Amino acid sequence: MVVSAKRIATKKGDTMCFLEVEDFSHSIEVVVFPKVFYSCVNSLEPDSAVMIAGKINYTDDGIKLLADRVCLLRDYKPDIYLAISAAHENEAVYKAVKNVLTTHQGDHIVFIYYSDRKKLIKTERAMWMDGSEEAIALLKEILGDDCVKSI
User: Fold this and answer.
1) Are the beta carbons of 106 and 136 closer than 8 angstroms?
2) What's the pTM value of the predicted model, to 2 decimals?
């Protein structure tokens, strides 16, 4: 939950923001640089429930979160990551995964990580999924529990 938002102008004249956000147990300062700020400006208001992804920055002044992505919690659609090892790189597995993705199409972006080659690809829009528990369970049956993540 956004507790406070302080907007400032950078030396270049762009706008950025310092947020204080809290959950039921902690609060943290979030730095929202201009590039991210302009993509989420309407989400940066006090009392907004937000999802923030970013990097932790340890400084002498304490811990801060540098935001890479901010969106209202109601609009949050986690990305789906599928890890495929060499053992799973075969026609039967590809066909089964494709069947699940096309049957459960939606707005959740699907990434496939080929673990042996250390290669990550973003699938085409037709392969994005709905993120349902049923679809996640089917993918876990095919690839294994540790190979399907929702972030």
Assistant:
1) no
2) 0.72
For domain 2-75, give the CATH number: 2.40.50.140
Question: 5-56: per-residue pLDDT in tens?
Answer: 999 999 999 999 999 999 999 999 999 999 999 999 988 999 999 999 999 9
Determine whether 133 is exposed, middle or buried from the number of CB atoms within 10 Å of its CB (0-12, 13-18, 19+). Answer: exposed
pLDDT digits (tens, 9 = 90+) for 51-70: 999 999 998 888 999 999 99
Helices vs. strands in the chain: H and E counts, helices first: 3, 11
As a whole number of angstroms, the distance between CA 36 and CA 34 comes to: 5
State CA 113 to chain mean position distance. Answer: 15
